[in-house]
Design goal:
single chain, about 130 residues, alpha+beta, 3 helices, about 25% helix, extended
Length: about 130
């Protein structure tokens, strides 16, 4: 599993965020900015987090006096991933770049290519 999450050759010693593959790094930033801050959120309905909290209280992993915390959150926006990320898009692809690594994902609503039409080539800045 470590070889799937981390860049090959970086899983010895400490496991650092900068050594994550771009897909794992993207999932980590999504969780840290949108899932984890909502764990005690009473203003928005986040049922799975409230359910997990209730189970943890029931089995004594969290004390009954735990009230959670409130934290404002901003809905996930791929345009604003934080420092170190660069996002661009084209007619067919979402393009992410971080730490010199690049990732390109086909858009859900991308039009199919016509017969004989070449797909958009990757460039050195992608």
């Amino acid at each position: 599993m470590l070889d799937y999450l981390f860049i090959p050759g970086t899983t010895h010693g400490k496991l650092l965020r900068r050594n994550l593959r771009i897909e794992a790094k993207l999932m980590l930033i999504l969780c840290t900015h949108n899932v984890i801050p909502r764990r005690g959120d009473k203003m928005e309905i986040v049922l799975h987090c409230r359910f997990i909290t209730a189970l943890l209280k029931k089995y004594g992993a969290i004390g009954a006096e735990y009230k959670g915390s409130y934290k404002r959150f901003k809905p996930f926006d791929i345009q604003h991933l934080g420092s170190g990320w660069e996002y661009k898009d084209s007619e067919r692809y979402h393009k992410l770049k971080t730490d010199g690594r690049r990732w390109r994902a086909l858009k859900v609503d991308a039009r199919p290519l016509s017969p004989g039409e070449a797909d958009e080539p990757e460039t050195s800045d992608e």
